């Protein structure tokens, strides 16, 4: 057990190390500090608070379970982000699988929500729903968390150039989805 | 296609994404802590301070693998002595919840009248005499000749995996919260694999399982021994996204076909990519045999080898609908067949 004053002054690296050794209080401190950011990330990717609730809970439990195998305590946040993005991908995959009957509707070039070439929020949201989980994650990290390309690359464990290209490609995919909905 | 001006600004995109991202409710922290309290941590199977032991075990594994390869290559050890006797027959697929049998070469089609409206996930025994599938939440094994059916288990909710062993003696099934193996007419046990496993396939000799979970492809024996990660996550606690999604062993056990879900968008920026790969059973000699970047194509249910091992079937999209596709194992002769549901298919041998 760790007392509250110790936790308050502990560095993240210490907390990660303690949590990796089974210290639940240290893990609670890690969760509390990250819960809002992680939940907003998941809910923005998924567009559903209920799904985000499940994903965030599963992600933190998975993080707890696998923490002893984390070799670099300083990479906890990047690792956690990756876990959350992975779980979001799985939810989107199962969602697509269970909604196959809606496939035609989803891809069927529905109503045009662009007036005079100007997109509105509803149209952008609908187009966003057609992106892959990876594309959603990149755009959310960049626009919701205001993460730089450098930060995104670090969090996803990919080269900066790759992050920059993927971000550009995700934006292009969103533009195309908007265009196809016209 | 050229993008016309859509009027999408950074400010609008940011406001949409901010609106999607909501704050957590007050209960979630308690939910997490309750779940954590009930979850044991997984200790690494070898501590990092024992590099010499790791090297010794790696060397032993390499020696054993080499010995096995030599034994198989020389013909002294054969995985399956009856391979080669089967020719390709009908492919059983799912359409609107019914099972349909599509003839070889896309000639002829019949609806299997024992499953209408609520069936999915067909898989067959190697000789084609038995067909396993999910009917609602029940796992059924049916003798195709006699029509005799046996319910071997219940998923409790939607089944995500039903996989009949090649000899028809066992079925693996899963609903996203644990995978079980049921011996026909016998007992059911949980498998020592991740609870949220996405797909399970049998090695042709029934001795090992191939499974995918969160971008990782791994194989292990039924008792949980000798686990080996073939792709994704090697040396990492959790892998990056974008790894293999579904995979299947070839009938001779030599190769594995796998569907990969790349994280990058396609060449024309479309949201889905699709790649079909083959590799040897140890993860080497990887070959991409089909790549459809940006053609709005994705796949569910995974690859299924033909009984003679020359072709691979997969369900994938084209023009916003799902179709059955078949392709030679070397990537040639791609054929689009009937429109079906995004689901697993079973390739029966010719009677």
Name the CATH superfamily classification of chain B: TolB, C-terminal domain
What order do the strands of the largest sheet of chain B run in, or round the barrel if closed? 3-2-1-24
Estimated structural class of chain B: mainly beta
> Which strand order does the major sheet of chain A show?
1-2
Average pLDDT of chain A, to the nearest integer? Answer: 76
How many beta-strand segments of chain B? 24
- The CATH architecture category of the largest domain in chain A equals Orthogonal Bundle
Give the count of structural domains of chain A.
2
Structural class of chain A: mainly alpha
The CATH superfamily label of the largest domain in chain A reads RNA polymerase sigma factor, region 2, helix turn helix motif
The total count of helices of chain A amounts to 10
> How many domain regions of chain B?
1
For the biggest sheet of chain B, the summary is: 4 strands, antiparallel
Query: Unreliable runs of chain A, pLDDT <50, ≥5 residues?
Result: 98-117
Helix content of chain B: 10-25%
CATH class membership of chain B:
Mainly Beta
Helix content of chain A: over 70%
Helix-strand topology string of chain A: HHHHHHEEHHHH
Kindly state the mean pLDDT of chain B as a whole number?
79
Question: Brief overview, please?
Answer:
The complex is a heterodimer of chains A (182) and B (351). Chain A has 10 helices and 2 strands.
Structure characterization notes:
The complex is a heterodimer of chains A (182) and B (351). Chain A folds into 2 domains: 1-98, RNA polymerase sigma factor, region 2, helix turn helix motif (Rna Polymerase Sigma Factor, Chain: A, Orthogonal Bundle); 109-182, Winged helix-like DNA-binding domain superfamily/Winged helix DNA-binding domain (Arc Repressor Mutant, subunit A, Orthogonal Bundle), CATH 1.10.10.10. In chain A, 73% of the residues lie in helices and 2% in strands. Chain A contains 10 helices and 2 strands; from the N terminus they run ααααααββαααα. Chain A has a two-stranded antiparallel sheet. In chain A, helix 8 packs across helix 10. Chain A is elongated and about 55 Å long. The model of chain A is unreliable at 98-117 (pLDDT under 50). Chain B is mainly beta. Chain B has a single domain, classed as TolB, C-terminal domain (Neuraminidase, 6 Propeller), CATH 2.120.10.30. Chain B has helices at residues 10-20, 27-37, 51-73; strands at 88-95, 98-102, 109-112, 119-124, 130-135, 138-143, 149-154, 161-164, 170-174, 179-183, 188-190, 199-202, 208-213, 216-221, 228-231, 244-249, 255-260, 275-280, 287-291, 299-305, 311-318, 321-328, 335-339, 346-349. In chain B, the strands form 6 sheets. Chain B has a 4-stranded antiparallel sheet, with no helix packed on it. In chain B, strands 4-5-6-7 form a 4-stranded antiparallel sheet, with no helix packed on it. A 4-stranded antiparallel sheet of chain B has the order 8-9-10-11, with no helix packed on it. In chain B, a hairpin with a 4-residue loop joins strand 9 (170-174) and strand 10 (179-183). Chain B is globular. The termini of chain B are far apart. Residues 45-49, 78-82, 234-242 and 264-272 of chain B have low confidence and may be disordered. At the A-B interface, helix 3, helix 4, helix 5, helix 6 and strand 2 of A face helix 1 and helix 2 of B.
